Amino acid sequence: MSVKQQGYGDYLYKIALYGTLVVLLAMALLPFIYALSISFRPYSEVFGTVHWIPKNPTLDPWRTAFSDLATPLKNSFLIATGTAVLSLIITIPGAYVFGRKQFPGKDIAFYAIIVALLFPYILLIVPIVDIWNDFGLYNTIPGLWLAYQVFVTPFAIWILRDFFEGLPDNIEEAAQVYGCTQFSAFLRVILPLSMPAIIAVGFISFLVGWNDFLFANMLTTGSGPRPAVVQLFISTTGGEQTSWALLMAETILIGTPPTILYMISRRYLGNAFAT
């Protein structure tokens, strides 16, 4: 192949590469930018000719959104954080045993947990609501923490078990040579090395607690710890007409905390899933 042909091929490759990147960025960013634009418009300006910059910008939708979501956002933060912390407390020891120890029935027990990922969770709503009522967990934040473990525990054990299993075989014994007990080797060696997977599992668990609508709607009422996503649904269905500016403002508000959390933890997420 001649130098001229190579240069022409490289030129076409760069055009295709950058063209694809521009298309993907446009698909991701244009809907967000338009939603942000709508959130600053009065109702009379939402429909009609498409334009990107509001002609009569107003902050009223944002004031209403902050007022409506003040308490639900606090509830969402408590629910999501508690879900993530509880899932790590439950799954780290379990995944370590599955990944680093040998015991009879290990594979059967592990795959029995993983099969739970295939179960349609909507079938669990009625029995969970009934049991939560009996135990006084209905309409409480701890009740939601426990309910979300149904979603979180199987995939958390799956991710962490693979990470623990991939660590060097004799790393605990090497730590014990330098004076560690088996437990302190776990705390001082295994856990720090597994931090990318632990952060990834914590992040995904936080997202489940933050974004879930089904359990949040069925296990809470207006007098309880109603999270932000349920309040967003009420905003779309309440009243005779939908306030699209308010809807966009609330959607951006609810989506901002997970986005910031992702930006902070993305380096660890990449390391966890690349292993």
TrEMBL record:
Alphabetical keyword list: Cell membrane, Membrane, Plasmid, Sugar transport, Transmembrane, Transmembrane helix, Transport
Transmembrane segments: 12-34, 77-98, 110-132, 144-164, 185-210, 244-264
Localization of this protein: Cell membrane
Coarse class of the protein's main subcellular location: membrane
GO cellular component: plasma membrane
GO BP term, pick one: transmembrane transport
Topology versus the membrane: Multi-pass membrane protein
Database matches in InterPro entries: BP-dep_ABC_trans_perm (IPR050901), MetI-like (IPR000515), MetI-like_sf (IPR035906)
Domain ABC transmembrane type-1 span(s) in chain numbering: 73-265
Signal peptide as annotated in the record: none
Domain of life where this protein originates: Archaea
Annotated family: Belongs to the binding-protein-dependent transport system permease family.
Protein's name according to its UniProt entry: Carbohydrate ABC transporter permease
Source lineage: Archaea, Methanobacteriati, Methanobacteriota, Stenosarchaea group, Halobacteria
